[in-house]
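Severity: low
Component: inverse-folding endpoint
Summary: output formatting inconsistent between runs
Steps to reproduce: submit the following structure tokens with default settings.
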């Protein structure tokens, strides 16, 4: 064999002397042929090569970067992925390090107050990776406390009488705030915290209500 040649697409034939790079994204046709010492050239062979050097795209919905969500809120979290070149090979996500599946309803009451991080990793069949991070904050308020009391009541985690007492204290606190009496609003919240600590028997519900009341009191005190 005297020479070996190749060409990319409809380009000019080039002598093959070393590995070469196929330029540009997309699908390329490579032809190759050999010529012997007698000048006879073989029928060209053909290869199809797909070049993908771009990471896939991804979009996260339900939780958004920089947003704050009340402690009583529930959000359905999902994501979409796309890679038109080689195709998506995998997409995995974690919420604060724990695995999370697309379509999961995240109840903020299961998360602590403060900052949280959703990390999505999408890999295409060529090995390109897209990392997307959503950071958000869980906050609380008197309306959140009222919604949480109602939720725990509906789940039979608070007895009806205690639920009514807690709701009444929260109503009093809201009325005090509307009238501009922050001191009285705090006093009702402190009584709410005391009653929740004494009368809510479910440990998780008790801890959340007490901690959230403490956070609201601290916010009102500035």
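Observed output (run 2 of 3):
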């Amino acid at each position: 064999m005297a020479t070996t040649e190749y060409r990319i697409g409809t380009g000019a034939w080039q002598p093959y002397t070393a590995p070469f790079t196929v330029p540009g994204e997309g699908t390329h046709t490579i032809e190759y042929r050999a010529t012997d010492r007698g000048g006879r050239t073989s029928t060209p062979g053909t290869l199809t090569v797909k070049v993908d050097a771009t990471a896939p795209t991804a979009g996260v919905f339900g939780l958004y970067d920089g947003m704050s969500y009340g402690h009583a809120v529930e959000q359905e979290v999902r994501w979409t992925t796309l890679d038109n070149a080689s195709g998506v090979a995998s997409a995995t996500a974690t919420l604060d390090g724990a695995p999370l599946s697309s379509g999961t309803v995240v109840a903020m009451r299961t998360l602590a107050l403060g900052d949280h991080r959703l990390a999505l990793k999408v890999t295409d069949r060529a090995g390109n990776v897209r990392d997307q991070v959503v950071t958000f904050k869980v906050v609380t308020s008197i309306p959140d406390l009222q919604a949480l009391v109602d939720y725990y009541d509906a789940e039979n985690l608070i007895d009806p009488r205690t639920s009514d007492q807690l709701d009444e204290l929260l109503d009093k606190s809201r009325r005090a705030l509307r009238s501009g009496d922050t001191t009285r609003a705090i006093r009702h919240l402190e009584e709410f915290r005391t009653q929740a600590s004494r009368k809510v028997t479910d440990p998780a519900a008790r801890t959340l209500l007490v901690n959230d009341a403490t956070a609201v009191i601290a916010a009102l005190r500035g």
